[in-house]
Amino acid sequence: MHVDQIPVYVYVIVAVVILALLGFVLLRGPKAPPGGYKSTRDPDDPIPGGAGGDGADGSTDSGAGGAGTTVKEAPSLDRPESVGSRMARLRGRLAKSNNVFGRGLLALLSRDRIDQDVWDEIEETLLLADLGSEASMDLVEALQRRVKVEGTQDPNHVKAMLREELLKLVDPTMDRSLAIDRKDMAPAVVLVVGVNGVGKTTTVGKLARVLVAEDKDVVLGAADTFRAAAADQLQTWGNRVGVVTVRSETEGADPASVAFDAVKTGIESESDVVLLDTAGRLQNKAGLMDQLGKIKRVVGKAADVDEVLLVIDATTGQNGMVQAKVFSEAVNVTGIVLTKLDGTAKGGIVVAIQRALGVPVKLIGLGEGPDDLAPFDAEQFVDALLD
């Protein structure tokens, strides 16, 4: 059949099909990445529902989508270990890692005669455990008073006496609960900060597992956009427990925009908690602190930041104290996460850091396993030291 013999209605049908296909493609827009969507808003677009503004550093606090963020979801799920189960297991690890500290103090206090040389040894043991000079002196003075009155012959009596005084220093009255409850139709927002190398991203992933085990709906925000592997690492943690991860596909994107998108995603999905991972290193300390301040300001346009957790590597000892003070000056730290506590006999860092900042240790990490993170319990901690 020649072309001029093809009926007119065939041309009409072909034209209608082509127009329909073009309309579908145009209406559908750009293809979304696997497992989520990619924001198409421009980095300089104003924040929907709120006015943008200049930050203290002179930069503009851009709104959602500035980093071209993507929401990634998980294909397969793990079931995290329950909090009660991990607490029992971690106590055993803590007792093993700090047994030199506890045994040493008990041995010194159980001597038939305790002279000034023994007290000097006791103070040295406390200082080596990173208890801090002020706390060490307070504990030695309290023990000296009790030894004069009560004596130290009975080992059980010695242990009970030491336990009571150590517990006072650790302070069981501090509120160690996490602010992880929804409020005013918005999720709780937890900002996790700290220098690189302390296990910050890993801590965020492990904390997500803790919350999932408590039946919380969680969103992760990969606001550490300066370390290429950070977002991938965080997404892997999220994938294991079915937690959504909001990230940017552009390395070095605006962390505040990613954080804002994560919170908006949490609001829209009616999640319970949004956990925000942040960078730990920039060219200078001032730049890092300004960035954290900006993240908090931008996120605050969508929902309040309820918790700022500072991650400290327990093996760094007094260096961790310096880090803690710097971060506390930049953001209102509400709690401490001590990682790698199983790798040191310096359990006294708990007391020293609480005294320096006036905020409690809320979580401790005792190993590299996915469920090696648990709420800090003052009594269990002291019992583990003396076990």
UniProtKB/TrEMBL annotation:
Residues 360-373 form the SRP54-type proteins GTP-binding domain. GTP binds at residues 194-201, 277-281, 339-342. It is found in: Cell membrane; Cytoplasm. The chain crosses the membrane at residues 6-27. InterPro entries: AAA+_ATPase, P-loop_NTPase, Signal_recog_particl_SRP54_hlx, SR_rcpt_FtsY, SRP/SRP_N, SRP54_GTPase_dom, SRP54_N_sf. Its EC number is 3.6.5.4. One of its GO terms (biological process) is SRP-dependent cotranslational protein targeting to membrane. Pfam families: SRP54, SRP54_N. Residues 33-85 are annotated as: Disordered. GO terms for molecular function: GTP binding; GTPase activity; signal recognition particle binding. Part of the signal recognition particle protein translocation system, which is composed of SRP and FtsY. This is Signal recognition particle receptor FtsY.
